[in-house]
Amino acid sequence: MEIKKITDKVSVSPQITASDISEIKEAGYRAIICNRPDGEGSDQPSFEEIEKAAKKAGLVAAYLPVETGMVTDENVVEFGNIVKDLPRPVLGYCRSGTRSATLWSLHEAQKRPLPEILAATKAAGYDMNGVARRVANGGKTPTQSGDAKFDIVIVGGGAGGIATASSLLARKSSLSIAIIDPSDVHYYQPGWTMVGGGVFEASETAKTMGSLIPRGVKWIKAAVSAFEPKNNAVILEGCTVVTYDRLVVSPGLKLDWGAIEGLEETLGRNGVTSNYRYDLAPYTWQLVQELKEGRALFTQPPMPIKCAGAPQKAMYLSGDAWFRNGALKDIDIQFMNAGGLLFGVKEYVPALMKYVEKYDATLNFFNTLTAVDGAAKKATFKVAKPDSEPTEITVDFDMMHVCPPQVAPDFIRVSPLADVAGWVDVDQATLRHKTFDNIWSLGDVMNAPNAKTMAAARKQAPTVAENIVADIKGGSPVAQYDGYGSCPLTVERGKIVMAEFGYGGALKPSFPSFILDGTKPSRAAWFLKEKLLPPIYWQAMLKGKEWMAKPEEIKVAAQ
């Protein structure tokens, strides 16, 4: 017998026998519901046998037989009527447990978000994507096959999504394209480091989504609940169904603030801040200006995260401000990094270490933030050094800049598009999905081993657009992405170490070293970051102008 827990109150299992009842009782279950019709298998005990053993053990037993693969709307209603009167926790069973899990999913449809239902059943070992459309429809069988149809559907109106739409239209203006995104505001997130350093105003990093959607592209202002790739369909909240010929998935990632105990309750006060949120980046600069003495913590979670240099950028700009105003000698800077390296590409480390020394910052590797007590100004870290038993430490702070753990969005992680780690599973060169060849993905949500940066999306969008147009023409992929990413490391106000690299940490400088040597801090790189990159983003990248981002052709080996 294998019991699979879905919630604290409901579990499911494959077929049980009368001899399993004592174990079920010992596990704390108070009721059983059978969802398998009698006589379905030759080795199957009857419900009467199960019920008799259950009653003898003091358990309640109920019978709701469901034909395999035939969970009806009436079955779901009856399931709800039965379970509301049963004592909890309840164990449902059928041949494999799938029918019981399906009944629970459809019954919960009006109470829980679809991604939560898919995640709970997936964790128990049951894939409910096949009934996702019914769950999105409140547990009832929908009547429509699709509410709208487009040549290209793009999920996500961030940097990657809008740039891809613009690049597609530049190549084939007749395409019907829809962008699905529920947000009213589009953010230039690379600017938030500068907001936290007192260089930009937060308002400079935001524009309305409607003003940026390319002309001729339909903006569907809604959240995605699930994917049906075999039916070329995307299901939105409320069970609106949008179908496509080709799909681009670029919704970004999820900042998992809730993974750190106590963090959400104290963000934005008690000296706890983060440049990873638009509304908190100004608070970072406020704290930097106010701190005259004490300890400042800067945390970095396990990879992957977007802009892996951002946690230390905050540290450098803060250290520079304290250096300039004379407070640095009285401030203890501690960098708490879950990883074991300051930066993953070794060529940039020497320049960074000079600034670590300048600001007298202490580097603490293999330290993962697990809890925050904002009122007490204490942070708890798990220390897991190689070849050592994990330990736990608590550190006092006066200011703390937190970089949160980051995961793929819930609706991606539970979808058929995801790999085992929850990221969209693509070929790292063509960015085409490995299973569904009319789907592409770019930006932070896919699983290619590149740095998750805006600069990466700037190179990926033309690659995806080029390959989609080639596919429309009936050809094979023609463009490849080399893993390019850029991380302008703001080591002091007025100087930047411009890290540019591709797959495997290969250096990918955009300029000759006599113009800009990215391994050394330079004012030219700061000028690029402060003055040139924002207009390039708003006026070029998002409008399909591929300045220094032309797709690289796939080189065919000679026969």
UniProtKB/TrEMBL annotation:
Which GO MF terms are attached to this record? FAD binding; hydrolase activity; quinone binding; sulfide:quinone oxidoreductase activity
Q: Which domain of life is it from?
A: Bacteria
Domain Beta-lactamase hydrolase-like protein phosphatase-like: residue ranges: 3-109
**Which GO annotations describe the biological process of this protein?**
sulfide oxidation, using sulfide:quinone oxidoreductase
Q: What keywords are assigned to this protein?
A: FAD, Flavoprotein, Hydrolase, Oxidoreductase, Quinone, Transit peptide
> What Pfam families has UniProt attached to this entry?
BLH_phosphatase (PF04273), Pyr_redox_2 (PF07992)
Which top class of enzyme applies to this chain?
hydrolase
Q: Which SUPFAM superfamilies match?
A: (Phosphotyrosine protein) phosphatases II, FAD/NAD(P)-binding domain
**UniProt-listed Enzyme Commission number(s):** 3.-.-.-
Requisite cofactors: FAD
Q: Which residues form a coiled coil?
A: none
Q: Where is the FAD/NAD(P)-binding domain?
A: 150-268
Protein name (database record): Beta-lactamase hydrolase-like protein
